[in-house]
Known about the structure:
Elements: E1 2-7, H1 12-25, E2 28-33, E3 38-43, H2 47-55, E4 61-66
Protein name: Copper transport protein ATOX1
Family: Belongs to the ATX1 family.
Domain HMA: 1-62
Amino acid sequence: MPHEFSVDMTCEGCSNAVSRVLNKLGGVEFDIDLPNKKVCINSEHSVDILLETLEKTGKAVSYLGPK
């Protein structure tokens, strides 16, 4: 089930940081919507793990719910 997160991304560098941490985690498919500052993630990982991983970017992150 896809999960939607709000990530405070302002530029391409921010979205690249999100891509980097998620690719490192592995086992995820994700779509980054930079203009709306949202990341949709499809993964077997728990929401807590995904949230923790996204927080490694140093950006403000919040869980919006299942998509």
